[in-house]
Specification:
Layout lengths: L5 H5 L1 H4 L22 E7 L14 H14 L6 E7 L8 H4 L3 E8 L3 H9 L9 H12 L6 E7 L10 H10 L4 E7 L4 H14 L3 E3 L3 H18 L5 E2 L15 E7 L4 E8 L3 E10 L10 E6 L5 E4 L1 E2 L7 E9 L33 E9 L13 E11 L13 H30 L1
Parallel strand pairs: 1-2, 1-4, 4-5, 5-6, 7-8
Antiparallel strand pairs: 2-3, 8-16, 9-15, 10-14, 10-16, 11-12, 11-15, 13-14
Helix pairs in contact: 3-5, 3-9, 6-7, 7-8
């Protein structure tokens, strides 16, 4: 479930930034720059793409327009490849037709004119060997330390199995090659939807039904942007609990999960006194949902007391909902009377098993909730892609004296400032009136 990687990039300043102390390492010890993001678009050019049911146009013409717009808007550092299936063999020999897949643009820096020219010549022709094309696309992208993405655009189910595309997707996921497949369906067919949803779920990707040229273009752009913005760190898969007790224990890092509509997912994070927990969550809206929706991230104590709830951290995108929070554990040297995160008796929250003392970490429960509901006819399984980013850093020191945040001094300063302003305004008014009368 490696889908939702745009929001983690948007919140990185809030969640992952710490001061770098000491001299910089020698040039020989510096890590090499990360490899560029890599994505391959896989387009179905089988005979069914002739159908004219998208805005009165053929499916292939809509796909070609979307490809052109995506190529024009492609970020300079993204390496893009294009593979097609069912594009060259017009005959009826299934054995030959089910081998019909070619890479027409190799993965690498894109020559925009060359890429658009290659797509413009495509004409709907043959069979639909989706499984074979996915396997070949994975080979096109190769392997590496960062995530690769395949964006599959098709209007029909595989007509050539074996290999079954769902089994191919599971096979690719099991290889641990950091590969995500996002699927886009161009036909309102339930069998196609189930197959594409299966492919996406197996690799941690997303499924979207595109019913217009605008939807198709916008979604492809979003997926390419996601490959660009989130490829640097592959999330670890985790399954949230139904309650805090027994929920998975998480260290700082990036995690991926799935959450159903109106569900709550729980996780636990150990935080030592004097440390600050920073967390963000993003949920990808990979299917049609009703309006008036949201996502909530809260931190609670194990006994259910709410410590803090997250603030909305939207990125301006319509396909992702995000929220983030910060919470500091009380420092053991602080005055117990001024703690606002502990119980009334001044004690901290539940310590981690096996540790004791004033420096023992306490367990903070994170719960992700959503108020999403599916539109009519929208599938609810699997759950929507969730990405959770967690960091634990040293707490920032509180403000030194004079502490305006304490309240009373601030109130006194505001009162004095108001009196002086009123007095000055009165004197100026009297002077102006006396001058005007003379």
């Amino acid at each position: 479930m490696i889908y939702l990687r745009r929001s983690a990039a948007v919140l990185s300043g809030l969640l992952m930034t710490t001061a770098m102390l000491g001299a910089p390492p020698a040039a020989a010890d510096e890590e090499p720059p990360p490899e560029p993001p890599k994505v391959e678009l896989v387009l179905d050019v089988s005979g069914s793409m002739r159908a004219r049911d998208i805005d009165g146009r053929s499916r292939i013409s809509v796909a070609q327009q979307a490809f052109n717009e995506v190529v024009d808007a492609l970020p300079d550092n993204t390496q893009l490849g294009i593979r097609v299936l069912g594009a060259t063999y017009p005959g009826r020999d299934k054995k030959i037709g089910c081998q019909d897949t070619q890479q027409i643009v190799p993965v690498g820096p894109v020559d925009r004119n060359q890429a658009k020219a290659a797509v413009a010549t495509l004409r709907p022709t043959g069979f639909t060997p989706v499984g074979l094309a996915l396997r070949a696309a994975a080979q096109d992208l190769g392997t590496g330390a960062t995530t690769r993405r395949i964006v599959l655009i098709t209007d029909g189910e595989d007509t050539c199995a074996p290999p079954d595309p769902c089994e191919v997707a599971r096979e690719l996921a099991a290889q641990g090659t950091r590969l995500v497949v996002d699927t886009l369906g161009l036909a309102p067919d339930e069998k196609v939807r189930r197959q594409l949803l299966c492919i996406a779920a197996a690799t941690g990707g997303t499924y979207t039904a595109a019913q217009s040229a605008e939807e198709l273009t916008g979604r492809i752009k979003q997926l390419v942007d996601r490959a660009r913005d989130t490829y640097t760190q592959t999330p670890a898969q985790v399954g949230g609990g139904e309650q805090c007790a027994g929920a998975p224990l998480l260290a700082p890092g990036v995690y991926t999960d799935r959450e159903r509509f109106s569900e709550h997912r729980w996780y636990r994070v150990p935080v030592r006194p004097g440390q600050e927990l920073r967390a963000s969550v993003s949920i990808a809206l990979d299917r049609p949902v009703n309006r008036d929706h949201g996502v909530l991230l809260r931190a609670t104590a194990p006994d259910g007391r709410e410590l803090v709830r997250g603030a909305d951290a939207g990125s301006g995108r319509t396909d992702v909902l995000s929220a983030g929070l910060r919470w500091s554990a009380a420092d053991p040297d602080d005055d117990p009377d001024e703690r606002d995160d502990g119980d009334e008796d001044g004690r901290d929250d539940e310590p981690v098993d096996g540790e004791s003392g004033t420096d023992a970490p306490v367990l903070v429960c994170l719960v992700i909730s959503n108020s999403l509901s599916p539109q009519a006819g929208t599938g609810t399984n699997p759950g929507m892609p969730v990405e959770l980013t967690i960091d634990v850093v040293d707490s920032a020191p509180g403000p030194g004296a004079p502490d305006l945040g304490r309240g009373w001094l601030l109130l006194a300063l505001l009162t004095v400032a108001g009196l002086l302003t009123g007095l000055l305004a009165g004197l100026l008014t009297r002077w102006w009136v006396a001058t005007w009368r003379n």
